[in-house]
Amino acid sequence: MSSRIRTLAMIGIFAALSYVTTLLIRPTFNEFLTFDFKDTVIGIAGLVIGPLGAVALSLTVSILEMFISGTGLVGVIMNVASTLAFVGPIALMYARKPSVNAVAIGTAIGIIAMTAVMLLLNYLITPIYQGVPREIVAGMLIPVFLPFNLLKASMNGVLILLLYRPVVRGLSAVGLNKKE
Hints:
By secondary structure, the chain is mainly alpha-helical.
C-alpha cells in the first residue's frame, strides 16, 4: 500500500473513531462545557501518522461536529484550538524522538497548553457566545474552567499513555502502521 493511501486510510479510520467516541461518550456539564475523549483518539493518531495527521483530524472531526451535532462556528474554533493545543505537543515531541518518554513529556506540555489556551479562549469568546458579561466569565476561570480543562486534558493524556502501545501493535498486525 502506498504511503499516501495508507495515510488517508488512517485519517479516515481515526476520524470515524474520534467522531463515534464523541457521540457515545460525552458528558455535558452545561451547554458549552463538554467532556469528550476524541482527543485521546486524535492524540494516538498524531503519534501514528504524525503532527499533520493530527491537524487534519482535528479539523475534520470539528467540522463534522459542527454539521451533525450543531456546535456552530464557535464550537469548531474552540474544539480545534483545544485539540491542537493538547495533541500538538504530543505529536511533535514523538515525531522528534519516538519514545514513551517523548509521549509523556509531550502529554505534560499538552495538558498545560490546552488548559492555558482554553482559559484564554473562554475569557475572550464565551462572553460573546453565551451573551454574559465578561466579569462573570472571568470569575469562572479559576474555579470552573481551570479544573475542568486540567481534568479533561489529564484524563485524555492518561488514556493516550495507556492505549498507545496496544493500538500500535494492532495496527502493525494488520499492516497499517509504518513505524513498527
